[in-house]
Design brief:
single chain, five-stranded antiparallel β-sheet, alpha+beta, 190 residues, 31% helix
């Protein structure tokens, strides 16, 4: 009897261990399918994660907005919900921040710092764009080159759904990164 109970407990634990990552992946895939798309400007950083593999390290544009929301932590950073909007130039921006999830519109969980005069600095958690091992180094090089030209020529397309944000693509001069890399390889051939 004890042997059956032990096997039953082991099977339940194994099922839970498989279900948790599967649900996380399913949530990200659903956000990519159903989420609202926003485009943000970026800056370069350095890339590798021993557990998740190669990626292009990103630093999405930070926003300073006017907010009279009192900070809970004095002098520190605080987690909030950042409501998003699309500006006239087609890029995403933060329109407001709150401690509670908005009931309408697109929003992302973000971090804010008080900067004074009723303003806060909002940082969005858009830092890693994962690619297959063989594509990531070339993508990282293209991203760094594009950003070193002075005119920030690299952007990200982000899908947002119920507070979740997933980077859908990295654009170099408006071209998706995989297409950009193929074009560069074709141009390099004799």
């Amino acid at each position: 009897m004890r042997k059956r109970i032990a096997i039953g407990v082991l099977l339940v634990v194994a099922a839970v261990q498989l279900a948790v990552p599967a649900l996380m992946v399913q949530g990200r895939e659903r956000t990519l399918r159903e989420g609202e798309a926003f485009r943000f400007r970026t800056q370069p950083v350095d890339p590798y994660d021993a557990f998740r593999g190669r990626y292009v390290a990103l630093s999405a544009e930070q926003f300073t907005i006017n907010s009279d929301m009192p900070m809970k932590k004095r002098g520190g950073r605080e987690r909030v919900y950042a409501s998003l909007t699309t500006e006239a130039d087609g890029y995403g921006a933060v329109s407001s921040v709150s401690r509670d999830a908005p009931t309408t519109g697109a929003y992302i969980r973000a971090t804010v710092w008080r900067v004074g005069d009723g303003n806060v600095l909002v940082r969005l958690p858009l830092e890693r764009f994962y690619l297959p091992e063989d594509e990531a180094p070339a993508a990282e090089a293209a991203y760094r080159t594009a950003n070193s030209r002075g005119a920030r020529a690299a952007d990200i397309v982000v899908r947002v759904r119920k507070g979740d944000a997933v980077i859908e693509d990295l654009l170099i001069e408006g071209t998706p990164i995989r297409e950009w890399l193929k074009q560069q390889q074709t141009e390099a051939l004799p």
